[in-house]
């Protein structure tokens, strides 16, 4: 094999963590990938193939059929696992495909304790597909550990946590949830999409499984849809790999290549998201037309202390309320920014603005939505990596119009 900072691909025993001591930035560039042994190509080839030629029946090079394994995907899985300090990683065709694989391990009668303000797609999957199959979900405010404890019983098999949450950026204490999960013998899985591995590593805090919508910060360029799961538990990994192969929510090699390309700059992008996020949050706090601002980096944010302890930065996701309380004003601001594009999703290099009440959270009954703090005038920003002066100017102009 060629020289260069090699990080061997994942074997049945997990990937050899020979870059474990590297800086996050070094891992983002080098972990999991290696020059192509046949040509020396420094970038991982896109193995656009469905099958692999065998030497004799059953004798192959570890790759038999591309639903189960693809070399482009294998390198991405090792790269992403390294970013989460995990021994094992698996990529899925979408974040929802990854979450679905975790839930497929459950059986009728099993119970799950999950957050009361989950990503809408998770809520839909849990309530529309798994509840009718006999899985029971307990929706609790996971910033309240006693509420989580009270919801656990002998049938509980999984705690599904998301932190920070969407859109109110609630922060759950992963270490405390992990200690509780260990005490009760249940699995703790954390949806780490909003933080990205640059800001937060749930497995290091004691979680057993970490999930990402790689569609967001990991891909980083709004050009792919993908999911990811990582764990240090070999048996759990094997079960999930079995589900991936048998259910077929596998990503294609082109998307794996795009994700590999994306994560090489994850550290640079996240640094810019955090810096711009901080500037935008402080701008909003000082603006007379703005009410509450939700960003975990603000000292009066309820989750600030825990976020400061378990995250390495506060990211670029910010929600804010308009002081006027008029929904027309929120609609107007959301439609009059020029750099902040009006769209769902998050985590790309470009800034986005969204109005949860009419977009991501429109399916939640109004009373329930208001009770949880998602008001008619709440706006959510995914702050991108553009020039901060331009972003502030864009928000200033939009706010001036109401
Ligand atoms: C987008 C998202 C998902 C779902 O991921 P897809 O890639 O869109 O399937 C799950 N959780 C969170 C927090 C998300 O933002």
Rounded average pLDDT:
95
Using the alpha-carbon principal axes, give the shape. Answer: globular
CATH architecture of the largest domain: 3-Layer(aba) Sandwich
Taken in chain order, the helices and strands follow as HHEHEHEHEHEHEEHHHEHEHEEHEH
Please report the number of helical segments.
14
CATH class identity of the largest domain = Alpha Beta
Q: How many domain modules?
A: 2
Proportion in helices:
25-40%
Distance between the termini: 62 Å
What kind of sheet is the major sheet? 7 strands, mixed
Structural class: alpha/beta
**Each distinct ligand:** pyridoxal-5'-phosphate
Any low-confidence stretches, pLDDT <50, length ≥5? 1-7
CATH topology of the largest domain: Aspartate Aminotransferase, domain 2
Q: What's the gyration radius in Å?
A: 21 Å
- By CATH, the superfamily of the largest domain comes out as Type I PLP-dependent aspartate aminotransferase-like (Major domain)
Largest sheet, order of strands side by side?
1-7-6-5-4-2-3
Question: How is this structure best described in words?
Answer:
There is one protein chain. Helix 7 links the parallel strand 5 and strand 6 (209-213). The protein starts with 23 loop residues before the first helix and ends with a helix. The protein has a 7-stranded mixed sheet, sandwiched between helices. It has helices at residues 24-30, 71-83, 95-103, 120-130, 145-151, 174-184, 196-199, 234-247, 253-263, 266-286, 304-310, 327-336, 366-371, 388-400, and strands at 88-92, 111-115, 136-140, 156-162, 187-191, 209-213, 227-231, 290-294, 317-322, 341-342, 352-354, 378-382. It has 2 domains: 24-263, Aspartate Aminotransferase, domain 2 (3-Layer(aba) Sandwich); 266-400, Aspartate Aminotransferase, domain 1 (Alpha-Beta Complex), CATH 3.90.1150.10. With 402 residues, the chain is an alpha/beta fold. The protein is globular. The longest helix is centred in the C-terminal third of the chain and has 21 residues, at 266-286. It has 14 helices and 12 strands. Helices cover 36% and strands 14% of the residues. Residues 1-7 have low confidence and may be disordered.
